Amino acid sequence: MASLFDKAAAFARSPKAQQAVNQAVTKGKQFAAKPENKQKIDKAVAKGKEFAAKPENKQKIEQVRKKLTGKDRPTGA
Questions:
Q1: pTM, whole model, 2 decimals?
Q2: Distances (CA, A) of 28 to 2, 35, 41, 73
Q3: Contact at 8 Å (CB) between 35 and 44?
Q4: Distances in whole angstroms, Cα of residue 41 to Cα of each of 27, 30, 47
Q5: Which of 2, 28, 42, 49 could form a cystine bridge with 6, CB 3.0-4.6 A?
Q6: What b-and-e string marks burial along 15-26, b requiring 16 or more CB atoms within 10 Å of the CB?
Q7: Do 41 and 30 contact (CB within 8 A), yes or no?
């Protein structure tokens, strides 16, 4: 019996899944191309950068990253 992962992988390779991905990409591009949405995206990016730049948030982000990866930050990053 095929595992759930095998079934998911088979679906991901199917034409139906490829069509769904292509539709989502097309809609995402259309959304991002609208000037009002570009503004919203730029605002969100700026807020994210501002959040990540604060020392207390940098520490929280680093703790979560370590927890998820189980590794210290590589040198040069």
A1: 0.51
A2: 33, 13, 12, 32
A3: no
A4: 15, 13, 10
A5: 2
A6: eeeeeeeeeeee
A7: no
Residue 44 CA neighbour count, 13 Å, CB half = 7
d(CA 6, CA 73): 33
Reading the block at residue 47, the tokens are 């807020």
pLDDT in tens, 9-50: 999 999 999 999 999 999 999 999 999 999 999 999 999 999
Crossing angle between the packed helical segments 35-53 and 15-33, to the nearest 10 degrees: 90
Structure tokens at 14: 């199917």
φ/ψ of residue 45, rounded to 5 = -65, -45
Hey, what's the torsion of the CAs at 43, 64, 61, 36, to 10 degrees?
0
Which of 21, 44, 24, 41 is CA-nearest to residue 33?
Answer: 41
